[in-house]
Design a protein that fits this description.
7 helices, 151 residues, DNA-binding, homotetramer, two-stranded antiparallel ribbon, Arc Repressor Mutant, subunit A, mainly alpha
Chain lengths: 151, 151, 151, 151
DNA sequence: GTGGTCTAGACCACG
DNA sequence: GTGGTCTAGACCACG
């Protein structure tokens, strides 16, 4: 009935959990993995999946609703709004390139050698790319369609 | 008498202010813009400069002291410790790996292929790594020396 | 649900309040009165019990967390870490040596002969070491268990 | 003209420096090493000897004056008052024994073996007792008479 | 001037 | 309920 999200929380990052949830959902929208009308997991479902308190998901969904990306329909669930993609922000690939750019710039400035940096990247890509949860679904590796279309 | 820091607080980032202060000072140390023995702005000075309560800077400086990067000298000020660069480097390299990890995870999760991602990285590393500005002007990017030499 | 601590603040001692709190909790751990996994009073609870501002307890708990003795779990409380006893023991033994050092220095400085001092020490050690109360009742001297077992 | 004091400041103790100065002077009085009418070093003299700021000694002398132990005579110096010994407190040897007693009790309770404790004591006594600054003066090892009697 | 501690009170994130 | 961060303001120790 809804699309299963793979949300991963990092404790070290310093970012509030609800924000990490928000960011990752928003990212799904930006990449087109989630589309207008799609149903999200219920608050309880997502909370238990990622191992946090339901209130934390309530907060994340609430913020997304506030920004117009999500619509909570009482008794039915959470759905991506019509304008979701436009609201979710700029082109993800541009955003991604910018993040990589500033990361690389900073690291080289901090004294890392290009080869070192390259090695770390390759190591991470291999490590994460070969993890079982991502390997299956191909081009949309972290999204599985659980039920049908939108309501 | 001390080195003026350009610390930029972003309210949107979700990171606590004291953490942003810590991270940016650490970045100065890692890039070599701040060196062992250098005096930092006083707590009150930095607090008023970035517009926060002194206690917030106390917290940031205190954490840096805990990690051995800073030395607080009562009545005299805050100074970079002898092993500052090495210690900051260790911290930074851990943080860098975490940032790369999240970035890669998110990108793969969003549907990028490992090869695509790898290509973008290599491209960025080559582009930035070959720019001449990094090896010259980049070493003291955001710092002005106020007053005389170090104490 | 948590172990009630009897923390006594001495205004005359010259030691900061947060330090007195730290030292006394550490003492509980070293003597085995508090063990790994035990829950401590909440910050607010302890603060109101000893009549100080919560921030003061935050500082004490924070320092103990830094030294690895305590684990703060957001929304759940403060718990003694796994290695608490070993870590507290290291700290304590350092402090003990310092205290003995000052005491001996002061006494010699005040005119005591090394032999006199040595005699007093041996006398005390023998007197206290042979008292039976130490091996029985002494192990949980100031602690009452509130509520059920440990979490 | 005045009695030279050997004051030793310990940075780790957490006690304010001015208080360590006070305590040690008071101790000299209690043990009889300093007597009514004796002149103390000047503020500057003592400050430079122990390596602290003169204001710190001002504070210590001020507190001792406040408690009636010291008399500051403008332009002449600092002298022990008539009632100094009575005001300085109880018999030092009793006080010393009490400190040793609670230290030993605590350490045994914390799990130290009597032999361990004894070893630490002997080690400290030997180490400090053989230090050159204490070896010379015999029964009043840390006090040298610099000038004559009281004014 | 410098850092260090503490209070009273607020609001947030999380369970 | 729990801990975490921040403010405004005070006073202390030290140089």
């Amino acid at each position: 009935m809804y699309k299963k999200l793979h949300i991963q929380i990092e404790d070290q990052s310093g970012l509030p959990v609800y924000r990490q949830v928000m960011d990752q959902i928003q990212q799904y929208v930006v990449t087109g993995a989630l589309e207008s009308g799609d149903q999200l997991p219920s608050i309880r479902e997502l909370a238990s999946q990622i191992g946090v308190n339901p209130q934390t998901v309530v907060k994340a969904y609430g913020e997304l609703e506030h920004s117009g990306i999500l619509e909570m329909r009482r008794g039915r669930g959470a759905f991506l709004s019509d304008g979701a993609r436009a609201l979710a922000g700029i082109d993800y690939s541009r955003q991604l390139r910018e993040r990589i750019h500033s990361l690389v710039r900073e690291a080289l400035q901090a004294g890392y050698h290009p080869e070192q940096l390259s090695d770390i990247f390759e190591e991470m890509i291999e490590e994460i790319g070969s993890s079982p949860s991502l390997r299956e679904a191909g081009s949309e590796p972290d999204l599985k369609i659980i039920g049908g279309g939108s309501p």
